[in-house]
Amino acid sequence: MQNAPALPDLECAPAWLLRALDQVRDEVYCVDVDNSSLLYANYPALQNLQYPLFRLRSLKFKDIFPEYTPDFFGRFFADSANTPNVCEAFEIRLLRRNGTRYTALFYILVSLFDQRPCYLLIGYDASMAKAAARAMELSESRYRAIISNIPGLIFQCSRVAEHKLNFQYLNEHCEDLLGVSSAKLYDCPDLFTEMMLLKDSEKFWHTLDESGKQLSMLNWQGQIHIAKWQDTKWISIRATPQRLLNGRILWDGVITNITDTKLKEIELTRSRAQLAELSAHIQRVKEEERTRIAREIHDDLGGNLTAAKMALGLLKRRFDDTNAVVREKIDYATHLLDRTIDSIHRIAADLRPSVLDFGLIAAIEWQAAEFERLSGIACHFHRSLEEIALDDTTSAAIFRIFQEALTNVSKHAQASEVRANLSVNHQSLYLHIADNGQGMKKSEQNKSDSFGIRGMTERVASLHGDLRIESEMGKGTHLFIQIPLEQKAGTEK
User: Is the confidence at residue 491, as pLDDT, over 60?
Assistant: First the structure.
């Protein structure tokens, strides 16, 4: 039998061709199927297999392709031999010189040489691609698991007109939250915005405008009405915008049902408002009761004690100088009555200073003078008006706030000076109280047992005002109080 012509030796090919084959990224092999051997491998193939060409040419298929079987590989080449110049593809694992394996995807190019097929394998290392695909598949699986467990509607949308959205992605929670399937919402995205109550819809488009202009987080809460269930829900939308190459803004975010939270928040706000009203009512009743008790003490007890003192004076005149013991007892009783009357005046003033009857400014001036006299701390009071007409409840509350502020200074501040300023501007009353004491930490302002600060805060809240404290250790404390007057006050310059 005549020997088959030898296959071409690529080492004898033109140098430019070999250089070109070495420069390509793919691995190129020329194989002799009859002898199950390799005739040529380019530089990327040699580098990956870790063999020199002369060593590679002495190896058999089994040394490089450990999964090679004559039946499978042979049939493949036999079939390919019948269709020359046809490029096929197959995947096979290769064995490197160091014993490691990698998966490669090969294309086989079959040509005839003197009626004998010439096989050229062109392929690349697919192990990295397969690892990346597996990692991508795992990541996708994890992503879907996370998405499926998020209690909300994950979405991706863009704005295609002034009041029109277009959804690019909706997860499976769409119907659970909105009562509309994701397929229906893809086809008719207006269904979503049409669910919004009118006032909330206007706020949504405004918030969307701002988010798109500034590329800032979209954060919107509002109510939607779901006709299918005859139900109104509170929902929250949080989304991050990104600008696409075509200039359009794409939002990725989540829509959640916050009805329970919102109802609890509304109930909490209502309860706080009721507590504030109750606190204001208690303060008002307390001031009224203090006023009543102060007047009864002053008028009834004071009057009776004064009458008793006058009676003792008359009695004293009935005894001559020979009744020294009796006169001494009468003098002692008179002195005791004087002390009792002074105590009654002091207690009545503590309950409600009668000076409040002359107006808030007069009362604050009196309190500042009393504070300076009793504590030894200089107290300077300035005002931008001569008098301000307020109802009794408001006047009493502001006076008590000022009184409590001075009490805190005397107890805790270790100050040598206090300055207070009262002004009215834009239908609001402003009271600023500052000391030059040791100051206090932020944590001390919020302590649960800071009853003085809490009392001032509650009184200010009962007047729908605002109290702000600024303090720095070693630099004193400033209290800024703002009370809206509305129709409460009239001023006299």
Answer: no
* Domain harbouring 236, CATH code: 3.30.450.20
Domain boundary among 99, 131, 163: 131
So what's the pLDDT on residue 4?
47
Mean local confidence (pLDDT), 277-296: 74
Length of the chain: 493
Q: Is it the case that residue 159 has pLDDT exceeding 60?
A: yes
Express as a percent the part of the chain with pLDDT over 70: 85
Is residue 343 within 8 Å of residue 326, measured between CB atoms?
no
DSSP 92-144: EEEE-TTS-EEEEEEEEEEEEETTEEEEEEEEEE-HHHHHHHHHHHHHHHHHH
Q: Are 439 and 401 in contact (CB under 8 A)?
A: no
**Residue 455, pLDDT score:** 80
Distance CA 403, CA 349 (A): 13
Same domain, residue pair 391 and 476: yes
Q: How many CB atoms lie within 10 A of CB 39?
A: 21
Q: Residue 309, class by beta-carbon neighbours within 10 Å (0-12 exposed, 13-18 middle, 19+ buried)?
A: middle
Contact 53, 46 (CB under 8 A): yes
Tell whether the model's pLDDT for residue 32 goes beyond 60: yes
**Tokens of residue 268, six digits:** 């909490």
Burial class, 115, CB count within 10 angstroms (exposed 0-12 / middle 13-18 / buried 19+)? exposed
Of 257, 283, 310, the domain-final residue = 257
Band (pLDDT 50/70/90 cuts) for residue 493 is very low
Q: Does 297 lie in the same domain as 397? A: no
> Token digits for 132?
């990346």
CA dist list (Å): 440 to 238, 445, 458, 470: 39, 7, 20, 9
Which residues span the domain enclosing 288? 264-351
Residue 451 inside a domain? The answer is: yes
The answer to whether the predicted template modeling score (pTM) of the entire model surpasses 0.85 is: no
φ, ψ at 29 (rounded to 5°):
-130, 145
Name the pLDDT band for 412 (thresholds 50, 70, 90). Answer: confident
What's the structural domain count of the chain? 4
Residue 184 to residue 191: CA distance in whole angstroms:
9
